[in-house]
Amino acid sequence: MGDFGFGQKIGMMDDPSLGFILNILQKYSWRMGFYHQFPQLSSLNLESVTSFFLQRTEVGRKWDRWSTEFSSAIKNASNRNDRGRFSIVLDSKDPQTGTSPPERELWAEGSFMMLAGSLTGSRCTCTRLIGPSLGSDNSATTMCATLFYLTANGSVYENLIQEIRHTFSCVEDIRMGAALDSCTYLSACIDESMRMSPPTPRAPWREVQEGGAMVDGTFIPEGYDVGTYSPERWIPSGDRSKDQINKARQVMNPFSVGPWSCTGRSMALLQIKLLIARIAWLYDFKRAGGSDGQIGEGQVLDSSHEHVTSEYELQAHITAACNGPVLVYRQRDDQDIMTQ
Q1: Which helix (H) or strand (E) holds 219?
Q2: Distance CA 74, CA 51 (A)
Q3: CB 109 within 8 A of CB 263
Q4: What percent of the chain stands above pLDDT 70?
Q5: How do residues 39-59 score in pLDDT, each as one tens digit?
Q6: Helix, coil or strand: residue 70
Q7: 92, 124, 281, 321: least surrounded by Cβ within 10 Å?
Q8: pLDDT for res 138
C-alpha cells in the first residue's frame, strides 16, 4: 500500500523495528480528532510543545529520521509513478494564484493519507487478526469489525462459510474476478460491518422516536440509539427490493463523499474481501476463551446499563482506533494452528 499511496515501500512486514511508525500515526490521529472536537484549541500551537518533547525521546528521533528519508525519496522521485497517488497532491496548484501549497500542508495531507489506508497491508494480516492490537487505519478496522460480528452471530458466520466454500474449490481461486464479485453475502457482511462500526469518529446509529419501537423483537424506549447487525438488509429478498436497498446505500457512505472521499476505495474493498474470504475458506474460527474473548466488546461507563457485548467498540480519533477481537483459528482438517 506504500507503493500505491506514495510510490515507496514502507517495509514494516520485512522490518519489525519500524513498528513505531504506527504508534506515532495513532497519536497523530488522536490529536487530529481532538482538534476536530475542540477547534478553538488549535490556536494554542500545542504541536510545538508536543513535538519538542517527542524529539527528545528515542521514538521521536526514529520518527524524525524515517519521515525525513521517506519524504525525501518521494520529493526526489524522477516521475509521477514513483510518487504514487500522492503525486496528485504534490502537483496541485492554487486555482487562483497558481502557486503550490506550503510544504507543511503537503506533508499534513500525506500523514492523513498514510493514516487513512496506506499502512493497512503492512500490519493487519500479521498481528491485528491474531490478537489484541490497536488499529489506526480504516481497512484493518473494517476487517476486525467484520470478524467480530461474524463470531458474534452464529447464523451469519455459517452463511458466509457456506458461500465461500461452495464458491471456491481451492484457496488459490480466491482472487479478483467474477467469482469473488458473485459472493453477495460476503459483500453484505462487509457493508453491514461498516454500517455498524464505520472507521470514522462515530457510527450512524438511529435514535428511537417518541413512544419507543420494537427492534428485532425487543422493545427500545424512546431516546435510545440502536443498531442491529443484519447483512441480509443488503440482499434483495421478498420484503426488500433492489430499489429499497439502493436508496439505503445513498445514505451510507463509509468512504465519505466529495473532496473527502477515499481515493483507494476499490482497492480497500478488494483487500478486505480477499482477506475475509481466504480466512473463511482456510479456517474455522471463534472467539478466544475467558477475558481475551471479550476484547473488542462494547463497554459503558454507567453501571446501570448492561455490558454491550454485541457492539464492536471503537475509539473516536479522526478515524477510529480498535482493539481486538482475539480469535482462535483451526484449519479445516481440525488441526490447531493459531491460538492467542
Answers
A1: strand 218-220
A2: 23
A3: no
A4: 72
A5: 777 777 666 666 655 556 777
A6: helix
A7: 92
A8: 72
Q: Looking up cell 500500500, which residue turns up?
A: 1
Burial grade of 240 (CB within 10 A; 0-12, 13-18, 19 or more): middle
* 86-106 pLDDT tens trace: 777 777 787 888 887 777 777
Helix (H/G/I), strand (E/B), else coil: 191: helix
Count Cβ atoms within 10 A of the Cβ of residue 145 and give its class: 0-12 exposed, 13-18 middle, 19 or more buried. buried
How remote is the C-alpha of 182 from its chain's centroid? 23
Averaged over 275-301, what is the pLDDT? 87
Helices 138-152 and 154-167, packing angle to 10 deg: 110
Cα-based distances in Å from 184 to 29, 98, 167, 271: 33, 47, 11, 16
User: Alpha carbon of 309 to those of 148, 149, 302: distances in Å?
Assistant: 10, 10, 15
pLDDT level of residue 213 (50, 70, 90 thresholds): confident
Using an 8 Å Cβ cutoff, are 200 and 317 in contact? no
C-alpha cell at 162: 457456506
Q: What is the DSSP letter of 116?
A: I
pTM for this model (two decimals): 0.71
